[in-house]
Design goal:
Blueprint lengths: L2 H13 L2 H5 L7 E6 L7 E7 L10 E2 L7 E6 L6 E5 L6 E5 L10 H10 L15 E6 L5 E6 L13 E6 L5 E3 L8 E5 L5 E6 L15 E6 L7 E4 L3 E7 L2 E7 L5 E11 L2 E9 L6 E7 L6 E7 L7 E6 L8 E4 L11 E5 L5 E7 L3 E2 L7 E4 L8 E5 L2 E5 L5 E5 L4 E5 L7 E4 L3 E6 L6 E6 L11 E6 L8 E4 L8 E5 L5 E6 L6 E6 L3 E8 L7 E6 L6 E5 L10 E5 L7 E4 L7 E6 L5 E6 L20 E6 L6 E2 L7 E7 L17 E2 L14 H10 L1
Parallel strand pairs: 1-27, 25-49
Antiparallel strand pairs: 1-48, 2-3, 2-24, 4-5, 5-6, 7-8, 8-9, 9-10, 11-12, 12-13, 13-14, 15-16, 16-17, 17-18, 19-20, 20-21, 21-22, 23-24, 26-27, 28-29, 29-30, 30-31, 32-33, 33-34, 34-35, 36-37, 37-38, 38-39, 40-41, 41-42, 42-43, 44-45, 45-46, 46-47
Amino acid sequence: MAATLLAALLVAALLASPASADGGGGGGGTIVFTTLGRSRYQFDIFTLPLAPSPNVPDELRLTDGVSVNYNGNFAPGSDSILFVSERNGSLNLYLSPAPSSAAASSRREALEEAAAAATLSPLLPWEPIALKDRPSLTPDGSHLVYVSTAVPAAEPRSSWAAVYSTELSTGRTLRLTPLGVADFSPAVSPSGEWTAVASPGPAGWSGEVEDLRTDIYVFRTADGSRRSLAIHDGGWPTWADETTVFFHRRDSDGWYGVYRAKISVTGGGVEAASVERITPPGFHAFTPAASPGAPGLVAVATRRPGSDYRHIEVIDVSGGDGKNAYLEVTRPVAPRVHHFNPFISPDGARVGYHRCRGSRNGGDSPLLLENIKAPGPDTFSLFRIDGSFPSFSHDGKKIAFVGLPGMYVVNSDGSGGRRQIFSGNAFPTSWDWKRKGVIYTSIGPDFASESTEVDVVAISLGDDDGGIAMKKLTVGGENNAFPSPSPDGKWVVFRSGRSGHKNLYVMDAEHGEAGGVRRLTEGPWSDTMCNWSPDGEWIAFASDRHDPGSGSFAIYMVHPDGTGLRRVVHSGGGGRTNHPWFSPDSKSIVFTSDYAAVSAEPVSNPHHYQPYGEIYTVSIDGSNIRRLTHNSFEDGTPAWTPYFLEPQDVGETLQASGRCAFEDCHWLSIEDAQQSEELFYGKSC
């Protein structure tokens, strides 16, 4: 498609209100949701010298310790750092002066210099709210090339991620990715003429959360023209020079490896003249980074057998005998900390990466209650909480949530601490409309079979000093879960596996099954995650009834008397649309979904768990789908209250804990012989 048309489309999207671009929404009040693991990592960008010396400082922190900072890159010909940060309630790109090895004679001096740059302004300050990632500057510093989710995809479960170029002096922005296509991980060539990206191509996304099996395309940075398929089956490209590209690929043996391709320009575009693997099977190597200032060197992240941690290594591929030498960069400095997504300085002297700013992994973090910028007019506020299945008390003063295990209550204005009201495994939470201080939940294993013992209970809170009472409402224990009370206080709808299938039932709110129970839905499928509308007219729930047992869920609604069943929203074949919750006016539903597919290569985001769940709203007639969050995390379990919490009233209370608590991608743990590890250390180090 012509670049002028792409530019016009993007400008229209940028000038339009996000509500008109993403659909409507409404209901006012406050939406609260969870992001899995968000409080358990505190990233900053660091650097180490490629050639350690007593005269060169140790590891330097290049970002300021505010919020989460990751996916850095050196600006061409300078010590400035481009990076992604979640500060100020949304993801954006920043440029920060970095302490050079010459200027910073000590770690303390480097940290002071970084702290002085704490008043940073985003490089892309305008709307719409969107993910912004993987920044690069053209060699003359005039244009910023990056990934953004600014423009919706035309189809459900299609990625919004595309590569854009913004002229920093004017703000003029051009979409370089064709419409209907997703691009990830852009890399600008040393001359600035070409940009390489990882793309699934026209085939799009089929639901992978491990290896996307992207191909590498190359196009002109100036306007996206001469787009060519250069390399089949590759991701995370990086340029060593104008004709050499490194990339990663996951082979049939299960190992990620790094490859080198020689690129040639033809009349039709750009293609790979040769491709060779430079890392052997037996360990994972991915997210490579090269630099014209370090010819023959490529930095990679590795996962070695016997290690639970990612580390940065540098490979010398300049030898002519095919035997590459490996230099360990991070393991000698911090052996029990994850290090991610390396990049090499323009002069080839240093390697950068991001890691937790603490000294090691593990431990607990303080409560996170953080305001997130919502797109469009401020009809409601949006908050992230450090806990799953949050819900507001009906006076808006408290929030209940679960920790899987543990159940807690906190003040919704962020004051005070968390109060544990149950120590076992509980999910979800929902407050009684009439009886003050009564919270419904289910206790027992989550993600369990129909016959697993799980029961619905009502927890009655006394004052803040105690007085907690628990009452079991279901009998038999056949996976009774997800209770939601009716607004008149008389009934509770819940999910049960008592028939051999997970269907919906309604029981007496105060006395449970002893006071009466009736079946609401019936069939050989799973109906679950139910929520009763504030006007009492509808019950929303997630179900796989369109394809039982497939793992694909859509949101449905039914009247409490069992009539009027209809589907509200589905993200497409294989899609997952879950956790519905009604707006205060009962006219909209907030939910979580993979409706916008992936936003980044999963292997680059191990701390995001099962990624790509975002928060959306939809009108109950299925129209006006509106995306609220833009990131590559897993956002989920939203709830909606009519009370509007002022963003300035509740801030990010999370401070650096000095620790992180997350595991690497579980699918990277390939159990294999240790001989490759022994061979590596015996030959190369």
